[in-house]
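for the writeup, i need someone to sanity check this before i put it in the appendix. the sequnce is what the collaborator sent (i think, or maybe the updated version? ugh). structure was predicted straight from it, no edits. if anything looks off just tell me and ill rerun, i have time this weekend
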Amino acid sequence: MVHAERAALIEDLSHLDDRQWEQPSLCAGWTVHDVVAHLVDTYRTTRLGFVVGLARARFDFDRQNSVGVARERGTTPQETLDRLRRVASRTSTPPAPLDSRLVEEVVHGEDIRRPLGLTRTYPADAVARSLRLQTRTPASFGGAKELMARVRLTATDADLTVGTGPEASGPALSLLLAVSGRRVALDDLSGPGVAALGEDG
């Protein structure tokens, strides 16, 4: 599933012009080009390499990511895309659950596609597995575990409910994006729990 998502994203990226590569993504402060460079860095990452890189970044995830983007961002979009193609078949991974690779592909895929007006119908199982992992992962690791004590998520297009509290309902993909901090997805959701998803912290 991970490699299928990588191939689909590479296909979409191959049709972009230079202006679209410099479009702001859903990742604050990052362009589409930056997100692709981050993906190149992620695809190359091994368990040991992640630990070493994090130590060099003084255990600051944001600093580690910034270093990776700077290292893998080519001088042109085509150079970065070529790098992505070369590493897309790798199976190395950071020290995290394997489903974290699905989260990476789906969420960053939307970080790129939504601002560009591109759409993809993701496999339902990939989205559901990603959402389940995000709701089990602590906020300190980019997840929403603590949030699940304050809101109940109900997917309208899948047999999936998680959390306790006021309900927020909508497509599973939009729920995944919302618990991953992408506020643009809140417009796709309804219910009293949506307010909790929009809160900081």
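Residues 167 and 178 are 13 Å apart (CA to CA). The radius of gyration is 17 Å.
thx in advance!!
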